[in-house]
User: What shape does this take?
Amino acid sequence: MNKKERFQAVREKRAPDFMPVWPRVQSQMLFSYGYRLPEVTGQDWYDSEKVTAAVLKSIKEIDYDMAIPSYVDYGFGVPPLGGKIWIPDKFGVAAGTSEDQPVKTKADWPRVKKMMATYDVKKHDPRMAGCLEVMKNISAEVGDVMPLVPMYYVGTTAAMFLFRPNEAFLEDLFEDPEWVKDMVEVATDWAIDWISAQYDAGANSICFTAETMGTLMMSPKMCEEFNLPCIKKLVDEVRKRHGQATWLHIHGNMQTPKAYDYLTKLVKEAGVEGFHFDENCPADWIKREVVDKLGTPACIITDGAAIAKGPAEKIDEAVKNDMTKIGDGLGLMMAPSCQVLPATSNEHFKAWVDATHKYGKYPLNQK
Amino acid sequence: MADFPELTQAVINGNAKKVLELVNIELGKGAIPQSLLTDYMIPGMLHVGQLMQEGEYFIPEVLRSAKAMRGALELLEPMLAKGADRKSEGYVVIGSVDGDIHDIGKNLVAMLLKGAGFEVNDLGVSVKTETFLDAVKARDGKVILGLSALITPTLDEMQIVINALKEAGLRERVKVMVGGAPVTREFAEEIGSDGTAEDAAAAVTLAKQLQLS
Ligand code: B1M
Assistant: This one.
């Protein structure tokens, strides 16, 4: 099977040859190539050549099964709106937004909202334009055989990353819910455009969207109120515009009755096709309650910190152990709790991918 | 549900307006500022921590309560500083270590320490070793240095700061407290810190112990 066929088998809950790995690798590929972030990107620039080389090397050397065909971070889109992003000059430390966000107070919102209405995601942020350039390159190299996914956040996570300082945004949720709904809607529309641009640049598989605040930062009730409609809109639009399904990366413990109820709504009402959880959801629970009961394919999780820490034998052992807990293993692939953490060595990263391929041979756990 | 005094309940509900209103009423009646804090508001915040552990509250609710506390603290602080009843528990310099921009947990720790009567100098996020050192040097006598980290690779920074304190001859008068989700007791011991705390309430208890030790 090639990587596309392997992932397709997971989606259809058929047996692949072995379990595929979705690593959601972001800055790790740059660090492992030997770059510091300021060598590759800044507030208003992005070196597509360097990034292309790093992405290709990562895909070829580690041999995982699905990729975001570029380097992405959550500072995308922010500088043209007037915010300043943080690009640390330090090995293993990811870039991000800062307190200097475009919407410091509500008075900034009309200006920013107006800019969002005419935001050209392919042009206005040179970092995003550079990222699309890389997607074209990677797609030309490996697009025939590998699922290449577009990635961006949705709902409250998207609004927080694009507009507001983190803590202030969490307070907005209580203090000004109507304003939050406005920000969330604008951010989600922008997210849909950005995902579309990634398809235009060569993404060829399902869309991966992320709600990293999940049920860790918000109650399931709040998730339902603020995020469910946005996720539904994104899922519908991606299907309409590109004929692709959407998987959701969500943080937090989804095992409580209220969180599980939200999860069910994400499938039944919003139309999410599959899930990537975090370390709060154990493999056996995912197989039983999500794949078998909800009928939804999903990722089982290795704690990203454990992969970063190693050693390789321990990673091997953890993967082997998880494989014994998932019955026939149909409908599952492997992922890290968030992403392959930026400071992870390629040695540990590869040990984890290899262990999944080795212990994840189908048929699994036959008596 | 336990029955709390009105002010405590207002903190739990994160009702900033109500907290301020009740504090003003109580002050008008001659209440002692320190007592309003330690006997009513801090227990409210501790209960909020418990509700979070039980999965009833999530971070926005915790921040809402923290904000309600902060509003009243701003009003009380000058009185606490002036008043004969002011018991300064000690001086704390706190920050998230270099490379780490997570600060929600650190802010809660700082706030509860303030509430508990510590003087707190919060240096913010991604704080460089020299900045920690400068803040310590700027203060005579005993200092508690609080280091927070949420991402595993930045844990190394804690060791770097401790080593730098030693090299600068400051270690003797500084008690180092470390915390954040990936920090374990073993790690805290291994790097030669003076202790770690699992959450903000435990951080207050630890800071009190360190101040006395
Ligand atoms: C001095 O003495 C003390 C004593 C006690 C102390 C103390 C100091 N400090 C804390 N405590 C203790 O008391 C506090 C109160 O009870 C507690 O504080 P906590 O901070 O633990 O608890 C808070 C009250 C609530 N918890 C939090 O606020 C953290 C929640 C999670 C979801 C989280 C958040 C919110 C964020 N994140 Co980030 N984030 C995650 C977190 C997931 C998780 N499972 O924790 C974690 C920490 N993040 C992670 C990652 C990887 C990242 N994050 C990043 C960014 C962010 C946001 C900006 C989106 C946001 C931060 C907002 C902010 N202003 O803080 C990036 C890092 C940027 C950087 N260089 O720092 C990025 C690299 C992601 C990326 N794609 O770039 C992971 C770290 C993995 C690891 N072990 O290395 C992570 C565990 C998520 C995961 N499951 O993988 C105790 O630990």
